[in-house]
Amino acid sequence: MRLLERLDGRRVLLTGVTGFVGEALLQRMLTDLPGLVPVVLVRPKSGQPVADRVAGLLRKPTFAAARERVGGLDALLATVEVIEGDLAAVPALPTDLDVVVHCAGDVSFDPPIQDAFATNVDGTHALLTRVVEASVARGRPIHYVHVSTAYVGGRRRGSVPERSVEHDVDWRVERDAGRRMAHRVEDDSREPEVLSRLRREAEREHGRAGPITVAQDAERRRRTWVKDQQVAAGGERARSLGWTDAYTFTKAMGERIVEELTSGRSRDQPGAPALPVSIVRPSIIESALVSPHPGWIEGFKMAEPIILAYGRGEFPEFPAAPDSVVDIVPVDHVVNAIIAVCATDPEPGVPQYFHVSSGARNPLTFRRLYELVREHFEKHPFDLGERGAVALPTWRFPGSQRVERVLAQGETAHRLADRALGLAPRSERVREFSRDLDRTKTRLDSLRRYLELYRSYTQVELQFVDDRTLALHRALDPADLEPFGFDTAVVDWTEYIRDIHCPAATAPIRRYDVIRKRRAAAGEPRARRLEGDPAGVLAVFDMDGTLMSSNVIETYLWLRLPELDRADRLREIGALIRRVPSYVGAERRDRGGFLRSVYRRYVGADLHELDALVDEVVTPHVLERVSGAALRRVREHRAAGHHTVLLTGAVRPLARPLGPLFDHVVAAELAVDAHGRATGFLASPPLVGESRAAWLVRYAEVGGFDLSRSYGYADSHSDLPMLRAVGKPTAVSPDVALYRAARTARWPVETWATPSVTSRLRVPDVRHDTTGAALT
Amino acid sequence: MSRPGFVLEVDDRTPPLVVHEGEGFRLETFPRGTRVVYPPESLPGIRDADGAIRRALLEPTNSEPLPVLLTAGMRLTIAFDDISLPLPPMVKPDIRQRIIEQVLTMAAAAGVDDVEIISANALHRRLTAAELKDIVGERVFRSFFPQGALYNHDAEDPDGMLFIGETDRGEVVEINKRAAESDLLVYVNVNLVAMDGGHKSVPIGLAGYKSLRHHHNSQTMVNSRSFMDHTKSAMHHSAWRMGKLLADHLKIFTIETTLNNDVFPDSYGFLMKREWEWGVRDQASMLAARRGLAIAPKSVRHNLYQGMRAPYGLTGINAGETEAVHELTVAKVHQQQMVEVQGQSDVLVMGVPYVGPYNVNSTMNPILATCMGLGYYFNSYRGQPVVRKGGAVILYHPVEPDFNQLHHPSYVDFFEEVLSTSTDPAVIEAKFEQQYATDPWYIHLYRTSHAYHGVHPFYMWYWAAHAMDHVGDVVWVGADRKAVERMGFRAASSLQDALEMVSGTVGRSPSITYLHNPPHLIADVR
Asked: Which of A660, A757, A768 sits opposite B402 (nearest CB)?
């Protein structure tokens, strides 16, 4: 009898239809098994009703044939019964179901421990409880089909039979322990030692930007830490019990629940009847061989990240043994097997196991897979810009230890380079170097991740026996063998991997590459254009380092040295040089403190004399050093009708030369005594880091400015809060930390070059004018 | 007796010739048949300069002697040419110092106490105190500067300018108020080239934008054939009309001086000699200079060149009524600089030296280099241009895109904003001039700092308008490609390449003329 007839009129509940296997299964049923009535259990997603989710699914191109058969989307929707529900809270199921196929599950290999249990253990438990209830209400047991994984056997070696996994782990104990562990990690993360360590790390990176930025980063670090710990806890527990990771471990626990709850002897549901149960265990599921069309795949599965990374030349070596078997099955084989299983009527309480795998009869070794992937990329290399085809690495399979060593060396080198970068003076070249370094870091991180993830899979020497699956296949009606067959021995790996799977898996990346190329052709984010209504728009500029290449110590010297004679000059410079190390330290820790310590040296200076000195002697120096591009931008903003603001940590007299360009100038105010002489203290705290942002917000509020349409220009990491406060920030000749932040946020980065004809070493002098000619 | 200028025809025996290129020079081998125009050798300087000055003041042309014009209680203003003249600056004492000192002595003798001394810098940058001192000398500086009686002209001071009237062509005449309201204005000039002096002194040097725009514009400049001949220059015609109007309102006593061609100090004497006449000493100093410049860092080269002072000799001094004095002055300048050249050529070659009027103690930026080459040197002719209409000009200069932001802030923006839009003088005049001329920031910098006026780069570009209109091709040898391209020109790495590039316009075997300048020369093209 054909499957079409055997399944005619059967009502089949499907979970996980928004996933890869579930979608393929639903597609096949709607297209080729018109008599079967699918019922889908769909989880509502935030803001999207369940009906819309299903409609969105059925609108996909793969369902075109099904839509055509019934005459449109609405007609197709009418054939599918939708139940809204979550595995965390499964609603009561309809009593007229014949089969329940559970394909939902957490496909991530390294979920946090509680998530793995929630989906694969609690979810299965909740669903089964409802299935048993429905069976009781119906008076006839419902056939429960559980989609598991071939790897539930864990890290054993040799052939794996199609039967229950042997272990005596109590899933209840493990589940409860996992939950407790997750809570404990949460609690641990709030321990003072952990918090203070994370805060110190955040401070090292963001200290200059201010305490709120540090706090935000520390909290982000804590969350990451919690997740990492929970993931590690899951993985470690799995390995300690003989599984590869939390995924296979909880999948195995899930199978045990199925076996227990359907046995008729469950502790949880005393008196419940035994159910007919089939457990389908596919190995690594990849793109379709034939149906819906060759190469059909949704999203990235297990092998794609490695294939893609290899194609980009980013995977120099792989820790697998060349002769170990990669057990891959096409998704349509898995779907066909599930459909065939649905058509069976197993004896209640006696679970049937089916391995959908290829390794036993049609093995594909790592080396062969590598060769096929390489062949594909040799013929169709990734087009990564103007540099031509990527040089494909040659894998020699040197063993995992050697790969590990190379990777560890790379990571160490990166760490050292990164530390060196923090000390380097800013320049275009340093920024370029930091960009390369960050790229290397991304690559190293993904290598590390995949190495960890696949380590156990690449080492397994498992052979999944698939005799029962083969028997099921052979029992199909001869007419069904062609459309519904699932004998993996028919797969021609060369054709499948090289000509079907690789092109399909790389297609989205190639499409994305075209977009990226277009974006790259457009270059880095463009300089901002001044457009829109100018009313209520601010343009905020930092001074030192942004408008001109100067720093606080330099400008201090401009103010102090002119009046000193030669000996005093040397003494002053000497005193400063001796203090440079402590200044550098202070600058790194806390910019406000640094400014205070430099401004101490102004003690005794007459403020009016300073003003006069600036006008006569320092102004030409400032105007000589200020960047032409910077002035042009300030003036463009003025011309556009924006309100221009100069924010500087320098003392007020130094803001005088550029003052006429700004509507408002904020500078450090030196406190003066009764005689108008500087006391060496500041009249108010220096405006640096977050206080700039806070000041800006207040200024905008009072003046009625719209910060979201306002512009900001700054050069230093400490200005990050200020730049974040405006809607149109630009990093100008930034230091590495700000450069990274700007790249992440896709802010324009500009270099406002200062004139090359002036020497930084020349200091203003009352006895010489700007041309160097003597005045006395 | 100094030898007159002459035109050399390059043959097999001609050695490589000096070509100036910014802060450096090269020895270039020119194709056979190239005409090289050499200026006359330096005329002998007047031995007793102070005596000559005294004579000029006491026996002026078309005027009563200066002491007669000076009366007790009068308002006397002395204006003098600013640092843009002479080029290079002269060794101390400056001729202006000598003249001003004698004028002040006569004024003191006549009991004049209301005296102010103004640098007639029009829209040029304010001179620094040290620069003022270099020109007027220590004694004058000390007596006048601290009291505020020695200062720079400020054309943007709303209270400092006086509207005199309009010429019959509707040209606004507005000059420095103090000068205009004086009983006597003494103008002390240095007439380095034939373009200077005459009515170009007061109506231009003490004027502002409102006046200058009538003659400093692309239309006038294209129609000035050339600036070195005021009878054929539309710009000078306008200035002359203004000068005549001004002469009716104000008593002006003009003192004009002419200098000889001693533009390089002794150690660079070889630069003023004809290459085949170099002696052992010249060869040695040439080699030393070349090797030294080759290894010196940019800043050292810059300081070396900018520090050069020329040991000019005074060839003439005339005082009195402006126009009469100027006739005598121009004759003297011609005697020193004029060289007869027979007919035009297809290609004109010029080396642009390190200094022009607007980069003394500063940087010669690309716009100034263009002005120097296509503005001043190209126009250094009488009769007709040295190059035929539609011919090619080949210039030597590195044209590095370096700007002195203190002196030339509007130039930076002109280069980035204006030239990237258009290089056509008429287009940029219509589109941008007004905006730059009235920009408050440029005006602020002009008045308080040491910046050229916002409109100044436009004038530089207009100076070159006649050349750009006249020639078909402009190629710079050894120039920064990007900077030259921005200005609408092309760059070549050698003379051979440049000739190759212009062959489309002038053919494979063009006639070539090289102006061996500096020292200054005027080609009298017949």
From this structure: A757
Alpha-carbon gap, residue B248 to A340, rounded angstroms: 116
Q: Out of B362, B413, B440, whose CB is closest to A632?
A: B413
Q: Strand B314-320 to strand B252-259: parallel, antiparallel, or no bridges (unpaired)?
A: antiparallel
Kindly list the residues from chain A whose CB atom is less than 8 angstroms away from the CB atom of residue B150: none
- CATH number of domain containing B159: 3.40.50.11440
Please judge whether A635 and B441 are an interchain contact, meaning their C-beta atoms are less than 8 angstroms apart: yes
Q: Exposed/middle/buried for A396, CB within 10 Å: 0-12, 13-18, 19+?
A: exposed
**Which pLDDT belongs to residue A588?**
62
CB pairs under 8 A between A and B: 70
Alpha-carbon distances of B328 from A660, B61, B413, B455, B522, rounded to whole Å:
48, 10, 42, 33, 17
> DSSP assignment of A651-712, as one string?
EGGGGTTTGGG-SEEEEEPEEE-TTSBEEEEESS----THHHHHHHHHHHHHHT--GGG-EE
Alpha-carbon torsion angle A684, A688, A692, A695, nearest 10: -10
Which of B47, B212, B442 is closest to A628 using CA atoms? B442
Q: What are the pLDDT digits (tens) for A65-108? A: 999 988 889 999 999 999 998 888 899 999 899 999 999 776 67
pLDDT tens for residues B238-290?
999 999 999 999 999 999 999 999 999 988 999 999 999 999 999 999 999 99
Query: Which residue of chain B has the CA closest to A616?
Result: B449
Closest residue in B to A776 (Cα–Cα):
B130
**Tens-place pLDDT, residues A659-704:** 999 999 999 888 888 888 888 888 888 888 888 899 999 999 999 9
The strands making up B473-477's β-sheet, listed across from edge to edge, are: B6-9, B35-38, B512-515, B345-351, B387-396, B473-477, B490-492
**How many domains does the structure of chain B reveal?**
2
- Tracing tokens 């297809």 back to the chain, one arrives at B346
Q: What is d(CA B236, CA B231) in angstroms, rounded to the nearest whole number?
A: 7
Q: Give first-to-last CA distance, chain A, whole Å.
A: 115
What is the distance in angstroms between the Cα of B439 and the nearest Cα belonging to chain A?
A: 10
Calculate how close chain A gets to B13, using CA atoms only, in Å. Answer: 41
Tell me how close the Cα of B515 comes to any Cα of chain A, in angstroms: 30
Residues B26 and B153 in one domain: no
> Topology of A1-169+245-283+327-360+465-490 in CATH?
Rossmann fold (3.40.50)
Residue from the list B130, B405, B449 with its beta carbon closest to the beta carbon of A619? B449
Q: How many Å is the Cα radius of gyration of chain B?
A: 22
Q: What ipTM score was computed for the predicted complex, to two decimals?
A: 0.87
Residue A173, CA distances (Å) to A78, A180, A749, B114 in order: 44, 11, 55, 108
Instruction: Give A573→chain B minimum CA distance, Å.
Output: 24
Global pTM value: 0.78
**CATH code assigned to A538-750:** 3.40.50.1000
List chain B residues with CB under 8 Å of A623.
405-406, 409, 445, 449, 451
Residue type, B163: F
Residue numbers in B near A774 (CB within 8 A): 130
Residue numbers in A near B449 (CB within 8 A): 619-620, 623
CA distances from A239 to A228, A246, A448, B390 (A): 16, 8, 19, 87
Which residues span the domain enclosing B513? 6-41+335-525
- Six token digits for residue B294: 């080759």
Cβ contact A660–B444 (<8 Å): yes
Could you report the per-residue pLDDT of B447-484, keeping only the tens digit for each? 999 999 999 999 999 999 999 999 999 999 999 999 99
Backbone angles phi, psi at B164, to 5 degrees: -95, -45
* Residue B359 sits in the same domain as residue B492: yes
Q: Is the dihedral of CA B260, B264, B266, B268 positive or negative?
A: negative
The chain B residue lying nearest A767, using CA atoms, is B130
Collapsing DSSP to helix, strand or coil, A732 comes out as strand
